[in-house]
Amino acid sequence: MMRSRKGFLAAVTCCLLIAGLGRLGFAQSARIDSGSVSQAKFGFYFETHLSPGTPPLSDSFSTRTTDEPGIIHRVLLDRRGRVYVGYDVRVVVLPEPNTYRVTFQRLTMTPDAAKEIMGEGFSSWRPLPRSNWGPPATQDIRGGDVLQLEFLANPSTGQQVVDYVTVQEPSRKFNGFDVLPERKFSYTPGPSRDFGTDDAELTIQAPRLIINGRLDESSTRNFGEISGALVWIYTAKRGRYILSLVPRPELGFRRAGEVRGSSLSFVVGTDEFRLSSGARIAPGQASFNLYVLHEPDWKPTYPNADLAAFSMGSERPATWTVRD
Question: Is residue 258 very low, low, confident or very high in pLDDT (cuts 50, 70, 90)?
Answer without folding.
Answer: very high
